[in-house]
Amino acid sequence: MGAYTFGIRGRVFISFLFLTELVTVSLLGILSIISLLCIILYDGLTKPNTPGSLRDPADTSIFPEKWLDIPLSFGLIMSGFAGHAVFPSIYHDMQNQKEYKKMVNYSYLMVAVIYMTVAVSGYIMFGSKTMEEITQNILTVPEYNQLLNRFAVYLVALNPIAKYGLTLNPVVLTWQTYIQSKFICILLTTITMVLLVWLLPNFDRVISLLGAFFSFFISGIFPLLCHIKLFRHTMSRWELALNLVLLTVASLMAITGTIKSFF
């Protein structure tokens, strides 16, 4: 939805902003996510009966109905924690770089809390009928405040505007090592993104593939390999063992999640 709402011209425009300006624009995305969370909680708490109520939970189960679908969740979960490609650019443009580590820790803590709240609330409200996006569910409940829910959908559509330029800034910089024109680099990146959205419409499969293949490699496997390569001689045995275990687990989850995204 966000891809069609934003459009190619909007994506090209947002990509020309400097990183410091992109960070300011990204505040819009943070506000939209927090607002969406508040709307979901409001809907669930104000509706007395299922479906769509936090006060009267829907039918849920502790274990998944289809165990073979578990690998699909690996990428879906990981995709939300894969901002590592942007970290060097953010660190470089920070006014106080000493606060970088604290900023990353607090950011991931906030992301985890928001994700867990939305996931748990959505499952309690709709159970096994939870759709790919929670906004699809809340639009099917006529007892909700429809004006408020429409606003939630618009927030979801607005979110890519805040994220697009910041997330793809490293991609554009990489293109510029081969192509001197920044405009052409941005245009090529934007056209590629639009084509991917058009050719791969299944939202959950696309996000799962991105999370399982790219996010696991960028955010898990590659950093672990670098850490082992650089510091293995100074690590204790248990630290090295822990890194190897994490590397093995991340690799297995990446492989199974990627395979499940295609089949």
UniProtKB/TrEMBL annotation:
Record's keyword annotation contains Transmembrane: yes
Membrane topology, from the record: Multi-pass membrane protein
Subcellular localization(s) per the UniProt record: Membrane
Transmembrane segments: 12-42, 70-91, 103-126, 151-171, 183-200, 206-228, 240-259
InterPro entries: AA_transpt_TM (IPR013057)
This protein's GO CC annotations: vacuolar membrane
Keywords, ordered alphabetically: Amino-acid transport, Membrane, Transmembrane, Transmembrane helix, Transport
Residue ranges of every copy of the Amino acid transporter transmembrane domain listed in the record: 12-259
GO molecular function terms listed in the Swiss-Prot or TrEMBL record: L-amino acid transmembrane transporter activity
UniProt family annotation: Belongs to the amino acid/polyamine transporter 2 family.
PANTHER family: AMINO ACID TRANSPORTER (PTHR22950), TRANSMEMBRANE AMINO ACID TRANSPORTER FAMILY PROTEIN (PTHR22950:SF692)
Annotated protein name in UniProt: Amino acid transporter transmembrane domain-containing protein
Organism, as annotated: Rhizopus delemar (strain RA 99-880 / ATCC MYA-4621 / FGSC 9543 / NRRL 43880)
